[in-house]
């Protein structure tokens, strides 16, 4: 063994663990009761914020993410609080101007963050420099991060050079972020030894257990000189999450690397979260289990959970294996970017479109176009030039730091959101997600914030409960020659654009989610939309929300012209006209929910 020293532990239970296993849905109310015990453990830090938590708070949970941070800061007075920051992307999916980066980091520090793990999805370190400087200016710990991946261009020598660059930027520590669980034990030893030999900074290993190898990788990392490991309490560990905290603590106990953490206290915390996890059963997925095929498809833990959930919502979960097979092909076309937000969303969503449309790159998302224009930075390797030509034509490609193209935008954002923002933090919420943020702040002002409904664990009991409150509507249906007696006994809350009916089939209570097949009736009293049957009928390839309508009645359009923009799976895509002609009717407006197969715009040739 090359060293003997106490190993420090960062627990990710309040951020990456639930992001990886239950699609980032854990609510603050389930975190606060256990904070007193978490604060007694003696962790080096707790990861509590950043990543997808900001998005999930306002999109699904209808919680103020800044208030979550303040509450956790108050509840964890003796523990460093850590966040994951996407460099120039902050917590959104685009690059922000430098003044927004400076303000966001400062406010995160003021509200309670002590340690900023700063990374760039492409390992284009020009995109982390401003955030690193802002962290240092705020007097906080700047952890420079290398996103680990495998490809013909990703070598230990390259990663060592990146570590040296981060040290020169003022990094207080270096993190190896293995978001997809691609590390193998001996590759870990070689990489850690190389970085520790070249850079005199504490080194952290963050590795997901997707392939089952992460605990072994961490042990080899420790032997090679690593100083700290990321773990998750066992009730939210393993699979696409992380090595179990208790297991790693037990493995090191009584050795020169002993963490000094109390296994009994950790066990009590695990018991608490075991009960909490049951509340979120609807977000569990078989695709978050340990699966060594990650070494082939390279899908990170958080992406795996969210991708499965999104496909499930679109009734396309049976296509997930095809999507996994398509992801490496898209990644190669884009020059082997590491798969971590936002590139994981960019690659993953494009792979979904390629599979569900039945034709590769029939639809290309706006984010892929921006990526191919250099809008996210320098890809690690050459991109597929045929794809670039198809996506952006002869438009110029940005070679410099993308944020250099951006003018200061904080004052404009402040003016745009106006009185809905009651603080600088509200302005930053709006900056991260303009449409979603505005909706959140408006609903907060109106007192109409409603989180998505958590389904009860016992669905049958829920149905029976519903039956006791309502008179059943009974009817019969015939399916393949069998007759079923149906009794609708209640209607549940809507969630994700769907209505739930509690019913009984032949006396067996069930909860069923009914979704339209050929016709979608818009929510809140909107008109029903007919099924697209004509070449001039414009429809969407995937369910989503309308971000912008680019044409109006009477406009002349050409075949292939973008006529509207929708957001699906957090990515924007243009919807195109199939034929040239005149816009006869527009059946949607900004903010509308749309589903595949319905007529959104009518064009007459």
Number of helices: 21
What's the overall average pLDDT, rounded? 86
List low-pLDDT spans: 460-474, 487-527
Q: Which band does the percent of strand residues land in?
A: 15-25%
Helicity, as a percent range: 25-40%
Q: What kind of sheet is the major sheet? A: 8 strands, parallel, barrel
Radius of gyration: 25 Å
Q: What oligomeric assembly is this protein in?
A: single chain
Taking the alpha carbons of the first and last residues, their distance comes to 75 Å
Strand line-up across the major sheet = 1-2-3-4-5-6-7-8
Structural class: alpha/beta
Shape: globular
Beta-strand segment tally? 22
How would the blueprint of this fold be written?
Layout: E1 8-11, H1 16-21, H2 35-40, E2 45-50, H3 53-61, H4 65-75, E3 81-85, H5 98-111, E4 115-118, H6 129-137, E5 141-147, H7 156-168, E6 173-178, H8 185-198, E7 203-207, H9 214-224, E8 228-231, H10 245-252, H11 263-278, H12 294-297, H13 301-313, H14 320-333, H15 343-356, H16 366-372, H17 385-392, H18 410-417, H19 424-432, H20 434-446, H21 459-467, E9 473-479, E10 482-491, E11 499-505, E12 508-514, E13 520-521, E14 528-529, E15 537-538, E16 544-549, E17 556-557, E18 562-568, E19 571-576, E20 581-586, E21 593-594, E22 601-604
Parallel strand pairs: 1-2, 1-8, 2-3, 3-4, 4-5, 5-6, 6-7, 7-8
Antiparallel strand pairs: 9-10, 10-11, 11-12, 13-14, 15-22, 16-18, 16-21, 17-20, 18-19, 20-22
């Amino acid at each position: 063994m090359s060293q003997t020293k106490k190993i420090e532990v960062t627990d990710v239970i309040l951020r990456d663990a639930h992001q990886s296993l239950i699609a980032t849905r854990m609510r603050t109310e389930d975190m606060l009761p256990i904070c007193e015990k978490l604060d007694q453990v003696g962790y080096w830090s707790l990861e509590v914020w950043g990543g997808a938590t900001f998005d999930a708070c306002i999109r699904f949970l209808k919680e103020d993410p800044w208030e979550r941070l303040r509450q956790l800061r108050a509840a964890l007075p003796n523990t460093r609080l850590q966040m994951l920051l996407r460099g120039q992307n902050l917590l959104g999916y685009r690059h922000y101007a430098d003044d927004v980066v400076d303000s966001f980091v400062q406010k995160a520090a003021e509200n309670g963050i002590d340690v900023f793990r700063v990374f760039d999805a492409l390992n284009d370190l020009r995109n982390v420099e401003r955030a690193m400087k802002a962290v240092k200016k705020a007097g906080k710990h700047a952890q420079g991060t290398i996103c680990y991946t495998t490809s013909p261009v990703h070598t230990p020598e390259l990663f060592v050079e990146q570590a040296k660059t981060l040290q020169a930027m003022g990094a207080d520590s270096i993190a190896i972020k293995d978001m997809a669980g691609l590390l193998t034990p001996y590759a870990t030893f070689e990489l850690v030894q190389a970085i520790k030999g070249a850079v005199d900074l504490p080194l952290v290993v963050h590795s997901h257990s997707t392939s089952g190898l992460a605990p072994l990788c961490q042990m080899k990392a420790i032997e090679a000189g690593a100083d700290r490991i990321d773990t998750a309490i066992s009730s939210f560990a393993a699979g696409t999450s992380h090595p179990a905290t208790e297991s790693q603590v037990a493995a090191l106990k009584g050795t020169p690397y002993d963490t000094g953490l109390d296994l009994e206290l950790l066990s009590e915390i695990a018991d608490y979260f075991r009960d909490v996890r049951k509340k979120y059963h609807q977000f569990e997925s078989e695709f978050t289990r340990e699966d060594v095929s990650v070494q082939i498809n390279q899908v990170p833990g958080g992406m795996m959970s969210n991708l499965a959930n999104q496909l499930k919502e679109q009734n396309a979960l049976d296509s997930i294996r095809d999507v996994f097979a398509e992801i490496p092909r898209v990644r190669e076309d884009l020059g082997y970017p590491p798969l971590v937000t936002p590139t994981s969303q960019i690659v993953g969503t494009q792979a979904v479109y390629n599979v569900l449309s039945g034709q590769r790159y029939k639809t290309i998302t706006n984010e892929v176009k921006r990526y191919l224009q250099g809008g996210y930075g320098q890809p690690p390797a050459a991109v597929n030039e045929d794809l670039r030509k198809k996506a952006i034509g002869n438009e110029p490609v940005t070679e410099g730091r993308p944020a250099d193209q951006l003018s200061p935008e904080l004052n404009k954002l402040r003016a745009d959101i106006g009185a809905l923002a009651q603080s600088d933090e509200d302005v930053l919420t709006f900056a991260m997600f303009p449409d979603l943020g505005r909706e959140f702040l408006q609903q907060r002002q109106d007192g109409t914030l409603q989180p998505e409904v958590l389904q009860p664990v016992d669905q049958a009991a829920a149905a029976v409960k519903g039956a006791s409150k309502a008179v059943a509507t009974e009817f019969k249906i015939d399916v393949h020659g069998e007759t079923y007696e149906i009794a609708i006994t209640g209607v549940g809350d809507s969630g994700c654009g769907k209505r739930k009916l509690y019913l009984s089939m032949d006396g067996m209570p069930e909860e069923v989610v009914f979704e339209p097949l050929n016709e979608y009736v818009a929510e809140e009293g909107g008109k029903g939309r007919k099924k697209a049957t004509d070449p001039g009928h414009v429809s969407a390839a995937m369910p989503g929300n309308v971000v912008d309508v680019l044409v109006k009645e009477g406009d002349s359009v050409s075949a292939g012209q973008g006529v509207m923009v929708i957001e699906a799976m957090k990515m924007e895509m243009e919807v195109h006209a199939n034929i040239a002609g005149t816009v006869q009717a527009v059946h949607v407006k900004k903010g509308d929910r749309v589903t595949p197969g319905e007529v959104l715009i009518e064009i007459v040739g």
